[in-house]
Write a structure and sequence with these properties.
- The chain is built from 15 helices and 23 strands.
- It has 485 residues and is an alpha/beta fold.
- The strands form six sheets. Strands 1, 2, 3, 4, 5, 6 and 18 form a seven-stranded mixed sheet that branches. A five-stranded antiparallel sheet has the order 19-20-23-22-21, sandwiched between helices. The protein has a four-stranded parallel sheet with strand order 10-9-8-14.
- The protein is globular, with a radius of gyration of 25 Å.
- The chain starts with a strand and ends with a helix.
Length: 485
């Protein structure tokens, strides 16, 4: 029997962005319907950020045993990996976080939660199972899913994606990975450290192509040292089952015929927005090749319908979806972008969002890097600082790393890239600086605790002033002033 519901706000998709919108609106006293056809918590909790970092933590722990000797501690033997127990560890982390994203919690906040797939039947109406929901406003937060490229024979081999890899209780003996982006690279290192042989295939000339090439080179050095085989300029054209029950990939590398065989295949060739089955035509919502079209306020072509996160085809990060959620709460419930609430007039600025690849060493970035600055013809001064010049890094044998920051006119911070231990944490102050248009003097005017890795940022900032501070002109000024002693 069809049930009709009228509400203030209907949120489609219970991933990180949708949950943030639903929770915020409910706590502000609005009637909220939250629709989710799959798992509460979305990709991040179930198939993405959370399980991948849990798996990386297991791999890092195994690697600690192997690296113990440099600290004067001799390991008894190479660590014994119980891959089934590693699987249980990953699932336990998901389970620990799950209650915060659960249906019960959101019903406790006052939301009506419907566990069905939603489809628009009009500009202000959706159906979900036996429910017909009409609302003043809608927010689409349906996220993205793995992109599986068209390839001969791929549908006949048992490939895995990020949505299935964390279900495995047996370690792959040789994992083939198609895709040298963050997902592929992180999974390559995690599985190598857990005892698998790994071959990483990237169609372009370099893995992680959006990052600073010099810093990517440092990551590559570590990955290859750990035994990961990285094949760039590798165009995979065909897949087939191998005689031993595994998978063989055929294609070209640097224009020459190329084949590789492994026990398992992970396809990590990117993401695609989830919008094709939403009935957007009935709602008057326009799309483009990568996702749903939105303006700076996150509105679609139907001004009563907003879209946030991966489904818009922009930067696919959990923290960006959360940022978008704050924008639409402000713009829908407070009716005006002029109430800033710290969100710069309610307009989208997700170009200032940082990103991190959680390899060891980590690679983090915010704002402009050198390739982007040159592409956009932006003038800058480059400042750099090596991890090897940091006392804490020396104490922890974590000296492989570097910070590079771009400084514009009048000392304005344009961007920063860091590779090294805890780079994802160290990028935070630089993200704050880029978001708020701060100058490099904000770093030099602060005091960092000693000995910490955070001093790398302070020392890099100081390097900006070094040429002027210790110039002949400054020496003459100091000499002149000393005559007044």
């Amino acid at each position: 029997m069809t049930q009709k519901i009228k509400t203030d706000l209907c949120v489609i998709g219970a991933g990180s962005g949708g949950l943030s919108v639903a929770a915020g609106a409910a706590m502000l006293g609005r009637k909220v319907v939250l629709i989710e056809g799959h798992k509460m918590g979305g990709d991040c909790l179930n198939f993405g950020c959370v399980p991948s970092k849990a798996l990386l933590a297991a791999g890092k722990t195994a690697q600690t045993f192997r690296d113990a000797k440099k600290y004067g501690i001799a390991p008894v033997s190479d660590p014994m990996i119980d891959y089934s127990a590693v699987h249980d560890h990953v699932q336990s982390v998901i389970a620990a976080i799950e209650p915060n994203d659960s249906q019960e919690r959101f019903e406790g906040l006052g939301c009506t939660v419907i566990r069905e797939f939603a489809k628009f039947t009009g500009p202000r109406e959706v159906t979900a199972g036996d429910y017909v929901i009409s609302a003043k406003h809608f927010v689409i937060s349906t996220g993205s899913s793995p992109f599986v490229p068209p390839m001969e024979g791929l549908d006949s081999v048992p490939y895995i994606t990020n949505e299935t890899i964390f279900d495995r209780t047996e370690r792959p003996s040789h994992l083939l990975i198609i895709g040298g982006g963050p997902i592929g690279v992180e999974m390559a290192q995690a599985h190598r450290r857990l005892g698998a042989e790994v071959t990483l295939l990237e169609r372009g000339p370099m893995i992680m192509p959006k990052d600073d090439p010099e810093l990517v080179g440092i990551v590559i050095e570590h990955l290859t040292k750990e035994g990961i085989r990285i094949e760039t300029n590798a165009m995979v054209e065909r897949a087939e089952n191998s005689a031993d029950g595994g998978v063989t990939l055929h294609g070209t590398k640097d224009g020459q015929p190329f084949s590789v065989t492994g026990s398992h295949l992970l396809v990590a060739a990117g993401r695609k927005a989830n919008f094709e089955n939403l009935g957007l035509e009935a709602a008057g919502v326009e799309t483009h090749q990568r996702g749903i079209k939105v303006n700076d306020l996150m509105q679609t072509s139907n001004k009563r319908i907003y879209a946030i996160g991966d489904v818009t085809g922009g930067r696919q990060f959990t923290h960006v979806a959360g940022y978008h959620a704050g924008l639409v709460i402000q713009n829908i419930l407070f009716k005006t972008p002029n109430l800033t609430f710290g969100l710069k007039g309610g307009k989208n600025r997700d170009h200032i969002a940082p990103w991190v690849t959680y390899t060891d060493p980590e690679l983090a970035h915010v704002g402009l890097n050198e390739p982007l600055a040159k592409e956009q013809n932006v003038s800058y001064t480059l400042i750099e600082w090596e991890y090897a010049e940091n006392d804490r890094a020396q104490a922890e044998h974590a000296t492989s790393g570097k910070l590079k920051a771009l400084i514009g006119k009048k000392g304005k911070i344009l961007g920063c890239s860091i590779v090294g231990k805890n780079a994802g944490d160290l990028i935070g102050p630089w993200a704050l600086a880029v978001a708020n248009g701060l100058k490099i003097s904000a770093f030099t005017g602060s005091i960092m605790p000693y000995p910490t890795l955070s001093e790398i940022s302070k020392r890099a900032a100081g390097a900006y002033y070094t040429p002027t501070l210790f110039s002949k002109k400054t020496q003459r000024i100091v000499g002149l002033l000393s005559s007044f002693d």
